[in-house]
Amino acid sequence: MNLPSDNDFFGWVFLILHKYGAIFLHGAGVTLQLALVGTLIGCVIGLLVGVLRTLPIRKNANLFAKIGHGLLQFILAAYIEIFRGTPMIVQAMVVYFGSMQLFKMDMSPMFAGFFVVSINTGAYMAETVRGGIGSIDIGQTEGAKAIGMSHWQAMAYVVMPQTLRNILPQIGNNLIINIKDTSVLNVIQVTELYFSGNSAAGAFMRYFEVFFIICIIYFIMTFTCSRLLRWIEHKIDGSSYYSLVKSDMMADPTGHNPVHLGGEKI
Question: Which residue among 17, 52, 75, 160 is least enclosed by CB atoms within 10 Å?
Answer without folding.
Answer: 75
